[in-house]
Queue: 2 jobs
Job 1
Amino acid sequence: MDISVTGRNVGITDRFREYATEKADKVASLAPRALALEIKVSRHNEKSGAAGDDRVELTLIGPGPLVRAESSGSDKYVAFDLAIGRLVERVRRAKDRSKVHRGQHRPTSLHEASADDFRGAGIVPADAATLEQVRTGAVQVVDADAEQPEDEYCPVVIRKKVFASDPMTVDDALYYMELVGHDFYLFTDSETGRPSVVYRRKGWDYGVIGLDDNAPVRQETEMAIRGGLAV
């Protein structure tokens, strides 16, 4: 597997190249058919002129779909460690999925694990004493409704991309979504021919939305009702 390291607004030392190459061996062992791993390092400069966080973007190129991961950190080593960890996890998921398609044992789903109170997953629920400490404030918790400091204003930048894509099943769309690490994936459903999107849901595994001009409810009407703008 070829490994390329490029930098933008940041110097790439021989020490970092050796560090990245050594860490990338783990990816090569999980994806022996991979052709190349592209490592791009960039540094974000603050408006004040001071140096900001480093960002690392990884792209694994092989005979199958691309696998991507990215992360930011206080320096390029921290950012790389976070990004390579995410890449390895996505490669493992893809490998587990291929085992399932070959008839091997599939991983336990979240629904199945929760039905057994997560005992099979090795997760132990908090005991009554710990819950009482949380209730009384003895254990600090994060208040989701607490007022957070406002971020510095910056204009919204909309990136536009147009792709050609072959029709695929919902299962394949979920597979590609996991590989690129997104929360959604746009595709054309091969079974219905509809433009559709798969996405992650809170409290559920995934959801699918499709567009069809012959559907009984229009998307704009449904959104207006949910937003309280219509009845």
Note: The longest helix spans residues 76-101.
Job 2
Amino acid sequence: MVDMDRISVSLPTKLLEEFDKVISERGYACRSEAIRDAIRDYIVKHKWIRSLEGERIGNISIIYSHHSPELMKKLTTIQHSYTDLIIATLHMHLDHEHCMEVILVRGDAKRIKELTDKLASQKGVKYVKLTVMAPGGKIPE
């Protein structure tokens, strides 16, 4: 038998409703197993990103609430600290509440991850996705 710990998590109602829909669509027997799978996926992605080394190119996609106090200023300040990595940014208004930014980056993988973590940890940031690859080389046809 596997040791189990019981935890309590507070979630916004809409987020839980969406999660329950996914659980149903995927055929999970219970929320607990779906949450365990989500946590496993999060850990695997974290370990993969942490293992990256050397020169990388890629993008960081962020969705955030533009109504969060001081958030845009904080995001801009963080980005100004990484001008050596950031090649370009694209800002898009998704709806009345949310904006999306796509940040194109090139540089050391560890610094790209550091930038991603700083952006993701800001209150009001809803979603962050980092996509990276090695620069150059021939892309298979």
Note: The helical segments are 13-26, 31-50, 71-80, 109-120.
